[in-house]
Amino acid sequence: MHATIQKSIEEIMGHLNPREKVFVIGCGACAEKCHSGGEQECKEMVERLTERGVLVTGWATSPSGMSLCKLALAKKILNEDHREETREADSFLILACGQGIHTIMDATDGLGVDVSIELSGSAEATRLAFQALRREGRVSLVGVPPRAMEFDFHPNIILKEARVLGVFGRVVWQTWWQVRAMLDTGKFDPLPIITHRFPLAEFEKAFQLAQSGEAGKILLIP
């Protein structure tokens, strides 16, 4: 399972242009279990966007227990079940894990997404974020790379006429209070993103697992 956390509505709004038409799509697998992009979260996101004046052309999610990363399912949702709504949209707001990038690319016949947000700092994920972008699309780079990386500007930025936005930091203390409110009201349950637990004495094993990229959040217990 891929652990996902939904971004704040303020940050999402910061990536939308005025009068931009949006189609919201979620996942009935990982994102539903993490309460970040299931049916209920999609409905709530549509309400929040609409309240802020965003024109939402429609929304959808894969059935409960079924992953949006399945190409045939994604194509059916986007190109058959919600064809008119997706054709009217300028961009997709995808409440799902990173694997949805390739699926959306394939499901839209390689056209790509209008907005791609990279949060991990991984060199491979950064390349995927640009590969998934359509011409004249926008990339927001949030994740901090651990070291310098090689990147091919010609096909990914110059030929695509891509717009690149760097995003750093958070609104202290506002972000912390927002998360605290989500925890207190039960809108966010952090437990599903904790994939492993270790005794504190086994911290080396926990760090090795974290560095492998095969875990979500790891809890060390004194």
Outline the fold blueprint:
Layout: H1 9-13, E1 21-26, H2 30-33, H3 39-51, E2 55-61, H4 71-81, H5 83-88, E3 91-95, H6 100-107, E4 113-118, H7 123-131, E5 133-141, H8 153-158, E6 163-166, H9 174-185, E7 194-199, H10 203-212, E8 217-221
Parallel strand pairs: 1-2, 1-3, 4-5, 5-6, 7-8
Structural account:
The protein is of the alpha/beta class and 222 residues long. The chain folds into two domains: 9-166, Rossmann fold; 190-222, no CATH class. It has helices at 9-13, 30-33, 39-51, 71-81, 83-88, 100-107, 123-131, 153-158, 174-185, 203-212, and strands at 21-26, 55-61, 91-95, 113-118, 133-141, 163-166, 194-199, 217-221. The strands form three sheets. It has a three-stranded parallel β-sheet with strand order 2-1-3. The protein has a three-stranded parallel β-sheet with strand order 4-5-6, with helices on one face. Strands 7-8 form a two-stranded parallel sheet. Helix 8 links the parallel strand 5 and strand 6. Helix 4 packs across helix 6. The chain is globular. The two termini are 26 Å apart. The relative contact order is 0.12. The model has no long low-confidence stretch (mean pLDDT 85).
List keywords for this structure.
Rossmann fold, alpha/beta, three-stranded parallel sheet, 222 residues, 8 strands
Share in β-strands = 15-25%
Biggest pleated-sheet summary:
3 strands, parallel
Terminal Cα separation, in Å?
26 Å
Q: What's the order of the H and E elements? A: HEHHEHHEHEHEHEHEHE
- Briefly note the CATH topology name of the largest domain: Rossmann fold
Q: Count the domains.
A: 2
Mean pLDDT: 85
| Oligomer state of the chains in this structure | single chain
Low-confidence stretches: none
| 3D shape | globular
Secondary structure class reads alpha/beta
